[in-house]
Write a structure and sequence with these properties.
It is a single chain. With 487 residues, this protein is an alpha+beta fold. It contains 15 helices and 24 strands. The chain has a domain of 63 residues: Dna Ligase, domain 1. Strand 10 and strand 11 form a beta hairpin. The mean pLDDT is 91.
Amino acid sequence: MNEKSKKILDLYRMDVGHFDEVFKMEHEPFSHYENVLDRFKKFSLVDFERINNEVKTAFFNQGITFAVYNENKKADERIFPFDLFPRIIPNEEWNKLETGVIQRNKAINLFLDDIYHDKKILKDKIVPADLIFSSKNYLKEMEGFRPEGGIYTHISGTDLIKHSDGEYYILEDNLRCPSGVSYVLSNRMALKKSFFDLFNKLKTKTVYQYPEELLEILKTVKPKNTDNPTVVVVTPGMYNSAYFEHSFLAQKMGVTLVEGRDLFVEKDIVYMKTIYGPKKVDVIYRRVDDEFIDPLVFRKDSMLGIPGVMSAYRAGNVTLANAPGTGVADDKAVYHYVPDIIKYYLGEEPILNNVQTYHCEKDSDFKYVLENVNKLVVKPVDESGGYGISIGTRLTKEEIEEVKTRIKSDRRKYIAQPIMSLSVHPTFVEETKEFEPRHIDLRTFSLMGKNKNYTLKGGLTRVALKRGNLIVNSSQGGGSKDTWVLD
């Protein structure tokens, strides 16, 4: 078969043992994928590679990149890998996902308000107090202070997987500075340009209104006695791995992108330096971590923050989104208790399940984990980006002993989970020039404001591009797909 006549899905084979998102049996697709498959089956390899290269060039020209840090902490800038075959979620399936994510985020926000005030859930021993107070993300500076509208988690990124049983499970919560929404919008723009006819045929829910919704959410939590709030995005700077996203969102919202050095505090009021003189700032969407946000309160050596901003915040003169101290709720050890947190505050059963989690600080869990490291995924509770994860089935005997030693040295720091069978999706592999099954997950994005909520209809489907890899993070060589929610 020559290159011209060879069709790109001719050689696709299902991965037995994993849930295939597209095919229920060999060459027999789920009904919601039929139109997309018909379109892709018409492509020859030559035609598909041409479109694929056009998209890569467009991403490069638009600066759609991310940074990977090497051992010397130098950033290696890369084009964000994007696969043209979309992930499709039927409307009924999406509705359950969205309802479950909203339920979870609502309960977590109530949890944060409680632990920084009355601490009822700790007194009732639903969540161990030691677990909260030993978290490096618990901030005493937030005790007794309630942000405008009682909202801590204005922007939430919830990671989900579909297991081999066909059910969705929550993998983790991202509540500090969740990244990735800019890639959702960029992916959609690229795919709509390449396959405009498909969007006409399928009724797909839009994602383009996210920046507008984000701005409106931020305005709902403006300080009191402020009519027309000035909103800014604070970035650590152009060398940050998510700088593309910071600049993208600021541009799409029509607000100013600033660094900490562009702002100053005077008499508990935050001002932005402009060529016309100081301008009062009311809402800060910060992409700077807690410990760097105010050198007068946290790290004194921080060059990224705004001296005095915490004082202005506690005085009620500026809103920070997300609120400092939210990271205590996305601690992977606290994740274990989120189903109980939902029942405690909402009186409801969780709509979406957690993955079974063992926290090594608990004696029974610690014993089980040490005896079964070879069958588990071991994760540090305070890392992100897929760093520090050990997958037991891929470790040598020596590496298993090293993991055990690490756990013993700091039991609070580690959790373990069964090795979940992430669903797979046909993905174009440039080395083999064929579509092959690759593991995927889904990051949803939800916004919470004062009497206003919004969930992006879709999210970021992340793909583990390496064969057999279960870690989908871009920092670990992962890519992404456009996610279509059918109307």
